[in-house]
Design a protein that fits this description.
three-stranded antiparallel β-sheet; single chain; 5 helices; Integrase catalytic domain-containing protein
Length: 161
């Protein structure tokens, strides 16, 4: 798990929490604001990760203040989730999430308006696009790895008002 921070304000969001499953490489992108607390991180984790995918065996993250807080540490301990923290100044410990962050940033900068004030509306589509792109090592998408089929999205009309 990692945060991409310092985006221009979009609604009330200025950052994105990125969670990547190491097996399937499926990603979850959650618009956020940079001043969340450890309790809010736990609520986001429960709402967006645990409720849909169950508890992970471990969580790889950097040593950001939220991930090393006593609250987060105790929560992971109670849930029997191993925390794998990167070494200081070595983000490559969580290289998979760092790569996803880079892809997401590229996607958003290509599609966000000149004003950069509506990027949060593109997050669901960015997540869908990422999770349905074929992974070169697996020769299938993350969606296919999880669900055993490709998504149906013919005839979808998406409007941006």
């Amino acid at each position: 798990m990692d945060f991409i921070t310092q985006f221009p304000l979009s609604k009330s969001f200025d950052s994105i929490l990125v969670a990547v499953d190491r097996f399937s490489k499926m990603a979850i992108f959650i618009p956020d604001y940079g001043t969340i607390t450890a309790l809010e991180l736990a609520q986001i984790f429960i709402s967006h990760v645990f409720s849909k995918h169950g508890l992970p065996v471990s969580i790889v993250s950097d040593r950001g203040s939220l991930f090393v807080s006593s609250f987060w540490s105790n929560l992971c301990q109670q849930l029997k989730i191993s925390r794998d923290l990167s070494a200081a100044f070595h983000a490559e410990t969580d290289g998979q999430t760092e790569r996803v962050n880079h892809i997401l940033e590229q996607y958003l900068w290509m599609y966000v308006s000149y004003n950069q004030d509506g990027w949060h509306t593109w997050i669901p589509l960015a997540e869908f696009a990422y999770n349905n792109a074929e992974d070169s090592s697996k020769k299938q998408s993350s969606f296919f790895t999880i669900y055993g089929r490709n998504p149906i999205f013919d005839s979808i009309y998406i409007s941006q008002d």
